[in-house]
Amino acid sequence: xxxxxxxxxxxxxxxxxxxxxxxxxxxxxxxxxxxxxxxxxxxxxxxxxxxxxxxxxxxxxxxxxxxxxxxxxxxxxxxxxxxxxxxxxxxxxxxxxxxxxxxxxxxxxxxxxxxxxxxxxxxxxxxxxxxxxxxxxxxxxxxxxxxxxxxxxxxxxxxxxxxxxxxxxxxxxxxxxxxxxxxxxxxxxxxxxxxxxxxxxxxxxxxxxxxxxxxxxxxxxxxxxxxxxxxxxxxxxxxxxxxxxxxxxxxxxxxxxxxxxxxxxxxxxxxxxxxxxxxxxxxxxxxxxxxxxxxxxxxxxxxxxxxxxxxxxxxxxxxxxxxxxxxxxxxxxxxxxxxxxxxxxxxxxxxxxxxxxxxxxxxxxxxxxxxxxxxxxxxxxxxxxxxxxxxxxxxxxxxxxxxxxxxxxxxxxxxxxxxxxxxxxxxxxxxxxxxxxxxxxxxxxxxxxxxxxxx
Length: 455
Prior knowledge:
Layout: H1 8-60, E1 78-81, E2 87-90, E3 111-117, E4 126-135, E5 139-147, H2 155-183, H3 185-196, H4 214-263, H5 270-299, E6 306-309, H6 310-320, E7 326-331, E8 336-339, H7 341-358, E9 362-369, E10 380-387, H8 421-431, E11 435-439, E12 446-452
Parallel strand pairs: 7-9
Antiparallel strand pairs: 1-2, 1-5, 3-4, 4-5, 6-8, 9-10, 10-12, 11-12
């Protein structure tokens, strides 16, 4: 099994165990090195003490061979070399053997040490050798030695460190796995709850742990995402229901008229039938066009960003529509914004149609750009469409921007509205970095579009 296939618990336990084991090994090596260094220093002092004791007897002329008296706890290989370089006395284990070393101390210390690996020593191997000089009718040299210590010094200490490293590593790895397992229990609960959430029931939420840690914040984010998802699905269901309802009405009218024509073809006037069916077809076309526009806006399709003269665009829209009410326009020239010409035309068209639908006698269109007036944000083009109808209550000004929403006073289908024009207009404005809001007015509804001006 690959490392990537292991669970988080196993990977964290493995990583923690390896890291702790490596640290324990490094610590053990450093500790053994320190112990070895201290033990070697102590051994060197002991060897030096043996040499000093022998030097004392040489200085007093009490030299004997083999070399007593040396206390049992200080017995070490010792040799005494006379000024001619001959071994004149040695401990019993070095009798009749050549000098164990050939270096001599340098004045004024008269003591030198080194590691000598030679077959002179009965036990073989390497020894720490300390050379000391005594003057008695010449320079006498006393060599004392002791076997060098292994790196681990004491096998018991090395065994204890190895066992401690193994036990400590296993304990830490087990503790890390156990801690991670307990910490991830809320994650398992969140996953189990998510497995039971279906699109048909988005009201369930994942449990939020009491401890305010990363998992607590994760659970809150998941619940917020589920809230948005539930809202989106509810909007989608309502949208499909409203769209089906709006489409069913003209389709039912067309079907009824065609069935009546089939039942009595001799009584049907073809021109009259076409005149009766055509409004329903136009309504179907309007609904499908608005639905297609909403789909494109929701999908975020890229649009061409050109410099657009809003005054020119409003004038074109006014000329291309037969306005059933009086239109008063105050259009400042050369109000330029950057955006998609077709989408901005659609925005203006929807606002004009909405105003004409609810106006009593007149529609006022005002276009301006900030030029020192503090009432308007610098660099903003403002388009205002005002009708003299009954207006919109303050608590319903956001409701009219919901899809397929029509106020009670505008529920008549003869008015032609299906509740998509204003949502499309606001979405176009927001896509161009602007806003579409309803503001206070003395009479009627006052729709205000603000778009960033093109510098």
